[in-house]
Amino acid sequence: MSVATLDVSSYRPLERSEFASFWRRLVAAILDGFVLQVIAGITGQLTAGLILADLPIVDALYPVGFIAYGATPGMRALGIRVVDADRNRPGFARSIRRFILPALALIPWLIFFRGPGWLLDLQVSVSIVALLALIAISILDPLWMIWDDHKQMLHDKLAGTYVIRE
Prior knowledge:
Blueprint: H1 22-46, H2 57-68, H3 73-78, E1 80-83, H4 91-105, H5 107-114, H6 124-147, H7 154-159, E2 162-165
Antiparallel strand pairs: 1-2
Helix pairs in contact: 2-4, 4-6
């Protein structure tokens, strides 16, 4: 019986100096927001009148697809990329896990703009607690990297990813 050996000679752990800063990630997110709005506008015009036109398909496919391969266009423009602990591209499974928390954090803001009328059907105390929890997550997620040793946001921790400079 043979035991597979791991070649650790080429393995180099991530160092704090490699992690992308809060500001670099923020500017990349703003750039991606602009690109996403243009793409969403174009696809909205092309799919006007279709039943699925109101679904935020582009809003989900954009980050999941690009992050699976390492970086969104905004990240590439700022010279940062998403990796796992071994410096590999995250792949689709990690990319989806990384997308879950920010997607959940958007729910309170969507409710705010849509109007709270539909909440009357739900039990009010449950709705309030759930909304407050989601608001707390939406605030804590981006701020978490400020005090984290690996400069990870909560969604990075959930997916086991790191954002590093190239």
